[in-house]
Amino acid sequence: MDISEFYETFFEEAEELLGDMERHLLELDVDEPDAEQLNAIFRAAHSIKGGAGTFGFDVLQHTTHLLENLLDHTRHGELVLRRDIVDTFLEAKDMLHDQLDAYRQGEEPDPEAFERICQTLKQLALDEMGKKVGDDAPGAAPAAKAEPEQASQPEEKSKEASSGVSDGDGGAEGRLTIALLGIADKDRDLLVEELANFGEIIERRGDSSRYEVVLETSTSIDDIEMVMCFIVEPEQLEIVAAGGPAAGAPAADVSDAAAKSDSGESAQSGQHSEAKAASPSKTPEQPAKAEPGKPAAKGQDKAKAKPKAAAGAESSIRVPVNKVDQIINLVGELIITQSMLDQTVSEMDATQGGALVNGMSLLQRNARDLQEAVMSVRMVPMDYVFSRFPRLVRDLAAKLDKNVELVTEGESTELDKSLTERIIDPLTHLVRNSLDHGIESPDKREAAGKSRTGRLTLSAQHQGGNILIEVKDDGGGLNREKLLAKAASNGVPTAENMSDDDVWQLIFAPGFSTADQVSDVSGRGVGMDVVKRNIQAMGGHVEIQSRQGQGTTTRIVLPLTLAILDGMSIKVGNEMFILPLSTVLESLQPRKEDIYAMAGDDVVMKVRDEYLPVVAVHQALDVADAETEPTNCIAVIVQGEGRRYALLVDDLIGQQQVVVKNLETNYRKVSGVSAATILGDGSVALILDVTDLHRLSRTKREAQSASRQTPLAKEVEV
Amino acid sequence: MTDLNAASAAATEAHSREFLVFSLGDEEYAIDILKVQEIRGYENVTRIANAPDFIKGVTNLRGVIVPIVDLRIKFHLENVEYGGQTVVIVVNVGERIVGIVVDGVSDVMTLTPEQIKPAPEFGVTLSSDYLSGLGSLEDRMLVLVDIDKLLTSEEMALVDTIDA
């Protein structure tokens, strides 16, 4: 069996488990930890350890093993949680993530980091558990020093003592009866082969519904179970110690009974309390007494984990994004073919092909539905983005000595997967800003009559074809005077009578930071301009609302998807182009007296007391047979990167949704053009990039004027 | 008998390669058949502004935007006309798909290693870097073009170069 095929599955699963672990750790109430959450955290660590063991990722296995032991103690109330312990767990989780990444890259994880985290975890175990063990059983304390790892994990040792049999029997091999339930013949052989790795197979018998293997091994039941669980469902497996000391068998039986019996609930709770009562006196020397609680809890784990896994398997499948994109492409093609057919049918004699016409309209409806359904496959909930902020806010707040409560709203709002990935960085930046500059320190807040705990709200909602994402804090708000002063000192043009909204926009200028002190959180002055650029690159825009003393709200408006664009089709000469509708403000017929030629070949157009640079599309893109007289053209006022331009085009055709196709897949970046699309007749139209087009037209004019040696423009006759 | 034929055919296949032969003006060129995805007519090409003249533009190949290069212009041929007979060979170059315009496609030829001669130093229009050799077939001479090298070369301006 080639196990490497399963690597990717393991990596993905492990990543999800780590995510779950972090979420639960963050939600965990340190004073009154929820037993179910502790179990969930433990389960995650346990599963990763099992997988790592199966695939031979030793470092990962070892680290999770240490973490798992600590979590196990926590779960049984032997280790009292504190905030710093949770921090250590989080740190360990990060480390696991790093290790996982390293394995994914086919590298060995950083041994130093591994050593460090092991030490931290061992130290924690020693500090917290060592004391206890020492108090209750003085005999164990010296051992703890000599062999910190083993002795600090009495639970582990006791587990091995009872179930692994070998310890109890003074080195003699243990005999286990492993029953495989409902496993097909071909899989069974593989499993038996796998089992043979643990020891010697003495006997094998049974049929596909129940197949028993008697195994002579020194491996503990738990370890075997862990490995096997990666291959078969837990309920397909029954492991019983056979012929060993009595301690092992009953324990395993209890486990089965607890997992299976209908009265398991009461049995579990009974044993649970027993386990709690027993735990303080639990030492490696008393395995039998400690054991009953353990299998019961395990049984409980299984019972809970199973339905969840089954539900997850049914409700979702993993599909590579490129497969989805391929389907989207094909559906796009189908739509185009359909509209071509539609056109042909509409030109036919309606009396002849009544059925055909009906069929066509049905096809059209189905094709549109299909397209919508396929597009929705790419959509993921915003939770995917928001879920990474609790950790960030927690860490940052602790670093800045601030109390911050994070509220997220609209996590289920869906957004295109490619956009969710690109929105993370800008959002992270905004959240950092809010925490560092927005929300005040507890004392300051109290003085201002606000609660000591600041509130940061992340929300998402749909608004037409867009998604609106807000980052809102109830901090001090932006300071108008400070911003103006800073702008003046940075050489950004300002005016005393600027509206508040215009003043807030100043912080998007490059190199702008109003933080008095540069901290390592933010304030280096690179940031908001990058945020703005990133969001604009995604076809969205960002705006700020702020009120002094009441907080700041940053709103990001993004299109739902990059794959489809609302476009305005324009005609220049005989060529058709698409302008993104989001950039179009208005269109008008230019009057002769509104057009001014400036020195250096620039032409501006006066639109409502504003002078806009004129970009003649035919000139920038060398279109032949186009209208060159501005007054015969149509001026489309467009906005790009915060500036407005007047584009001169021949004609406006109309609005339509277009599927965005990348030009760079098979060709290269074309200046003035952001992408391409396929029109209803199957031909390709280029989607214009307004800002780039302006740049292009400038460089072209400069080149032309340099070659002609004439200072004035000839393209636009004034 | 049939087995013998198949066996000898297989043996030939192992050493010889198949080429698609196309014409540019009076000359015959050939490219490795495995690079060819399909052959189609020249239609519906959208011009790309500010591109070299031999890049005719882009076209829609079943939902994929594909650039079209006219090798006749690239090789400075005199009669460049577009009509119903103008043929586009769609080739796969690396991860990319590119269409090349030629005067016509004639046939598919199998050339044995002995039939492939090294390319002599050529003039300026077609650097010998882009040739994998000359194929001689009875009285015909085929110019074997290394289409990968040719289309990804800097002078074709099809691929973004690092400084671009």
Automatic annotation (TrEMBL), chain A:
Catalytic activity field: ATP + protein L-histidine = ADP + protein N-phospho-L-histidine
List of residues that carry Phosphohistidine: 46
Residues annotated as domain HPt: 1-103
Residue ranges of the region described as Disordered: 131-170, 246-315, 699-718
Any one GO biological process: chemotaxis
Name assigned to this protein: Chemotaxis protein CheA
Species: Onishia taeanensis
Subcellular localization(s) per the UniProt record: Cytoplasm
Keyword flag Membrane: no
Pfam family name, one: Hpt
UniProt key word Amino-acid biosynthesis: no
Key words, A-Z: ATP-binding, Chemotaxis, Cytoplasm, Kinase, Nucleotide-binding, Phosphoprotein, Transferase, Two-component regulatory system
Domain CheW-like: 564-699
Function: Involved in the transmission of sensory signals from the chemoreceptors to the flagellar motors. CheA is autophosphorylated; it can transfer its phosphate group to either CheB or CheY.
Record EC number: 2.7.13.3
Major location category of this protein: cytoplasm
Biased composition (Low complexity): 136-153, 246-261, 284-298
Domain Histidine kinase: 312-562
TrEMBL record, chain B:
Domain CheW-like: 16-156
Top-level taxon in the UniProt lineage: Bacteria
A GO term from the CC aspect: cytosol
Entry keywords, A to Z: Chemotaxis, Cytoplasm
The keyword Nucleotide-binding belongs to this UniProt entry's keyword annotation: no
GO biological process: chemotaxis; signal transduction
Primary location class: cytoplasm
Name this protein carries in UniProt: Chemotaxis protein CheW
